[in-house]
From TrEMBL:
<dbReference type="InterPro" id="IPR008967">
    <property type="entry name" value="p53-like_TF_DNA-bd_sf"/>
</dbReference>
<dbReference type="GO" id="GO:0045893">
    <property type="term" value="P:positive regulation of DNA-templated transcription"/>
</dbReference>
<dbReference type="Pfam" id="PF00907">
    <property type="entry name" value="T-box"/>
</dbReference>
<dbReference type="InterPro" id="IPR001699">
    <property type="entry name" value="TF_T-box"/>
</dbReference>
<dbReference type="GO" id="GO:0005634">
    <property type="term" value="C:nucleus"/>
</dbReference>
<keyword id="KW-0238">DNA-binding</keyword>
<keyword id="KW-0804">Transcription</keyword>
<dbReference type="GO" id="GO:0001708">
    <property type="term" value="P:cell fate specification"/>
</dbReference>
<dbReference type="InterPro" id="IPR036960">
    <property type="entry name" value="T-box_sf"/>
</dbReference>
<feature type="domain" description="T-box">
    <location>
        <begin position="30"/>
        <end position="203"/>
    </location>
</feature>
<keyword id="KW-0539">Nucleus</keyword>
<keyword id="KW-0805">Transcription regulation</keyword>
<dbReference type="GO" id="GO:0000981">
    <property type="term" value="F:DNA-binding transcription factor activity, RNA polymerase II-specific"/>
</dbReference>
<dbReference type="GO" id="GO:0000978">
    <property type="term" value="F:RNA polymerase II cis-regulatory region sequence-specific DNA binding"/>
</dbReference>
<dbReference type="InterPro" id="IPR046360">
    <property type="entry name" value="T-box_DNA-bd"/>
</dbReference>
<dbReference type="GO" id="GO:0000785">
    <property type="term" value="C:chromatin"/>
</dbReference>
<protein>
    <recommendedName>
        <fullName>T-box domain-containing protein</fullName>
    </recommendedName>
</protein>
Length: 224
DNA sequence: TCTCACACCTTTGAAGTGG
DNA sequence: CCACTTCAAAGGTGTGAGA
């Protein structure tokens, strides 16, 4: 199956994108659609690092309509959403020329760690690609997905039955900008508020980061 | 723009504990 | 045995300064 990628809009009204896609009796639900929609409305950004960075949000699906006894491999690929490179300018993303060529030889896919499994196994639990890591290191040997910073990408879920043809599912709201430093402050705030690993940066109640810093400074001052 | 050391946090899994 | 708790190590965060 081929896909037409949506045109770039920067932000879009909520509810534009389906949380459910169906192809040949197979239905895929983007389970964390609400979080993706929040990020997408600010244009999602994903950090690239040399050693590899997890995505947040990550792709989390619920599948139905698979043949229970059949074996399937589930794979996530991340492909360019368009041919441009971008810059963050005046609080907006704007195209700034033709992007880097997407090296097919270098492009990588991420096979879910339960692959292959029976259809029944895939359908009884959520399928989360939280282990997937993104890197800008062209010489990466860890098998991470290699992307170019300041380019726009879209994840695709591939459902591959043992011998039949591959089914590909694309949720436009999972599109993101690859960056090495967050450009949009609103994205940083969304990450901090939603990702458990970033809890240390939340400003809540009397235990805020600012208060802790002040306390620490006071401590050092009193000790010295 | 990119990289790194860092404080701060969650997650993981082994070891301990009681029924 | 099993279920639950405790604990320390491993490892995921954005930061902020320097390149």
């Amino acid at each position: 199956p081929s896909f037409v990628f949506p045109t770039f809009q920067g932000s879009s009204p909520e509810g534009d994108f389906p949380a459910v896609l169906t192809h040949k009796d197979v239905t895929v639900t983007l389970e964390n659609n609400n979080v993706w929609k929040q990020f997408h409305s600010c244009t999602t950004e994903m950090i690239l690092t040399k050693q590899g960075r997890r995505m947040f949000p990550y792709c989390r699906y619920r599948l139905s309509g698979l043949e229970p006894m059949r074996m399937y491999t589930l794979v996530l690929s991340i492909v360019p959403a368009d041919q441009y490179k971008y810059r963050w300018s005046n609080s907006k993303w704007e195209p700034t020329g033709i992007g880097e060529h997407h090296d097919q030889g270098l492009s990588r896919v991420f096979s879910h760690h339960y692959s292959p499994s029976q259809g029944s196994a895939w359908m009884t639990s959520l399928v989360s690609f939280y282990k997937l890591k993104l890197t800008n290191n062209m010489s990466d040997e860890e098998g991470h997905i290699i992307l170019h910073s300041m380019h726009r990408y879209i994840p695709r879920l591939h459902v591959i039955p043992a011998v039949d043809e591959c089914m590909t599912f694309v949720f436009p709201q999972t599109e993101f900008m690859a960056v090495t430093t967050y450009q949009n402050f609103r994205i940083t705030q969304l990450k901090i508020n939603h990702n458990p690993f970033a809890k240390g940066f939340r400003e809540e109640g009397s235990c805020s980061r600012l208060n802790r810093i002040i306390t620490k400074v006071r401590h050092v001052t009193e000790a010295g």
